[in-house]
Structure to design on (574 residues):
């Protein structure tokens, strides 16, 4: 067992050896090392987060035909550090009548709900926090903590804008949890396990190829969970100032902001894990764990880039549109897709792999086509209804105009 | 005293304290947030018992759905979230009596339980609790009938809720 094939175990063994050599109890040394590992992962993620700020600003600038940060350091790379210093030395304000304890816990919970997700992210076959056999549900459970943090922030700020923003955001998150949970069952059906590492290891063909519709629904639900455009109605600047984090200043605001960026990156990672093979890439993951980390980070960045692409391309939708889209369109499709996938899986389990793949893709395409046709019919009927309501009013107005002539 | 016992005692203490705060805090939103803390404590107890799946479900269902619904209901229905006035009515001593009696009954029953001093069996490697649970819930030899009956009951409740809330045009 050398360092290049299992770095975590080698490092842990080495450190345990030193600590026990100093006369420390083996159990205490083990617990200490576990804490050290958590601290290390969390700090690396926070440092990565700093660069995500730079990345997001650079990418959005390109989408909007600007240059983005380019003054401080090469390519503006020092800019996020300047931003952080600014956030740290800013006055830390607490609004009058705010619920101090809840107000201060909310940003911490928000950041925690993102960092905790990385406990189940397998960075390499041997590099992972915990191989939880209920990983898919863990994703939703961490989202629940995020929801809680937002409602706490909105309520404790003692500000109407904050409360309305929190209500909207929580409505989005609670609604889109349902299609997400349903779609998470699809990789579970394919892999026969909810554990993230098992899902990756069973993914000899990307699950995106088996269930493109499922991957698409997961992406949409993930964007909604993030509260990013087109689902960013919670922060609608023109109506709500900034939504639930209106009253936060300095680093507390920074926690929400950084948490959102890291969350987007994390969901990019989960999209890669569930549908694009995670750390696997044509056997490269077997060469070295370090290569696996590079692969999964690269895939996560591509997912993050797609989320940014959608954010800076789409317009914000209204809350009734969001609710109708989720409950009348996305949720039924997600449930039907789970049922169809389970049925096809049961029927084709013993068939050849080509037949299996073809059957899965065909069922996805047919389901997507049928649901789009139904949506087209319904919206046509709705359009006719609205125009029918408008028509008599119009002709009456015209009649009035003619009478004047 | 093993490390596991210490962790259990800390978690149990936090859970009990949160439960106490739920019923005594006069601010309803605070009560709901303390309830979240208590539910978290219960989830951690499940996790300590190697029931990771149940712990995660506890967080998803109770914190993600029920506690959020509580907070929503409090915020939407009350202008003033503070409860002024006394926390107990004149029957408080009956409640206290029932609580003490049930606690005494539990202690009495647990006198004959000899599991406290036993050490838990080691979990065999490759044991997947989620698979076992799924098999138990869906196999005819297991709990498929109660499971289906509970599902139908929940579906009936859902249909009833939709019917009550449906706005007849």
């Amino acid at each position: 067992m050398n360092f290049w094939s299992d770095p975590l175990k080698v490092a842990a063994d080495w450190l345990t050896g030193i600590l026990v050599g100093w006369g420390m109890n083996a159990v205490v040394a083990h617990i200490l090392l576990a804490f050290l590992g958590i601290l290390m992962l969390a700090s690396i993620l926070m440092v990565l987060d700093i660069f995500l700020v730079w990345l997001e600003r650079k990418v959005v600038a390109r989408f909007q035909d600007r240059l983005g940060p380019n003054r401080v350091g090469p390519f503006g790379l020092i800019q996020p550090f300047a931003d952080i210093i600014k956030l740290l030395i800013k006055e830390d304000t607490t609004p009058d009548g705010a619920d101090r304890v809840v107000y201060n816990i909310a940003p911490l919970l928000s950041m925690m709900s993102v960092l905790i997700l990385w406990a189940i992210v397998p960075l390499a076959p041997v590099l992972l926090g915990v191989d939880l056999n209920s990983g898919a549900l863990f994703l939703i459970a961490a989202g629940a903590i995020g929801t809680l943090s937002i409602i706490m922030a909105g309520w404790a700020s003692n500000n109407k804008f904050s409360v309305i923003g929190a209500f909207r955001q929580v409505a989005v998150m609670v609604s889109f949890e349902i299609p997400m949970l349903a779609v998470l069952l699809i990789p579970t059906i394919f892999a026969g396990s909810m554990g993230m590492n098992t899902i990756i290891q069973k993914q000899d063909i990307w699950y995106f190829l088996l269930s493109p519709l499922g991957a698409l629904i997961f992406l949409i639900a993930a964007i909604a969970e993030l509260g990013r455009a087109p689902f960013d109605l919670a922060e609608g600047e023109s109506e709500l100032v900034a939504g639930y984090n209106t009253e936060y200043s300095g680093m507390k605001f920074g926690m929400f902001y950084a948490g959102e960026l890291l969350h987007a990156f994390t969901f990019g990672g989960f999209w890669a894990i569930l549908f694009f093979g995670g750390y696997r890439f044509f056997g490269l993951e077997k060469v070295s764990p370090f290569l696996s980390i590079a692969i999964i980070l690269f895939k996560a960045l591509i997912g993050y880039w797609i989320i940014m692409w959608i954010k800076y391309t789409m317009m914000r939708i209204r809350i009734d549109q969001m609710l109708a889209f989720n409950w009348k369109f996305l949720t039924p499709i997600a449930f039907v897709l789970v049922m169809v996938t389970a049925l096809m899986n049961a029927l084709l389990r013993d068939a050849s792999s080509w037949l299996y793949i073809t059957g899965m893709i065909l069922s996805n395409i047919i389901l997507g086509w049928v649901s789009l046709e139904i949506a087209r019919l319904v919206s046509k009927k709705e359009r006719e209804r609205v125009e029918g309501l408008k028509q008599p009013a119009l002709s009456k107005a015209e009649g009035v105009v003619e009478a004047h002539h | 005293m093993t490390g596991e016992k210490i962790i259990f005692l800390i978690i149990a203490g936090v859970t009990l304290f949160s439960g106490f705060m739920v019923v005594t805090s006069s601010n309803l939103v605070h009560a709901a947030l303390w309830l979240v803390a208590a539910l978290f404590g219960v989830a951690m107890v499940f996790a300590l018992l190697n029931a990771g799946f149940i712990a995660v479900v506890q967080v998803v269902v109770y914190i993600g759905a029920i506690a959020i619904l509580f907070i929503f209901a409090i915020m939407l229905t009350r202008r003033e979230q503070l409860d002024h006035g006394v926390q107990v009515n004149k029957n408080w001593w009956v409640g206290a009596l029932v609580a003490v009696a049930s606690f005494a009954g539990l202690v009495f029953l647990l006198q004959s339980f000899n599991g406290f001093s036993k050490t838990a069996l080691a979990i065999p490697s490759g044991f997947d609790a989620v698979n076992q649970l799924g098999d138990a819930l869906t196999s005819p030899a297991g709990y498929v009938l109660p499971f289906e009956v509970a599902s139908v009951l929940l579906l009936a409740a859902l249909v009833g809720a939709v019917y009550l809330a449906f706005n007849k045009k």
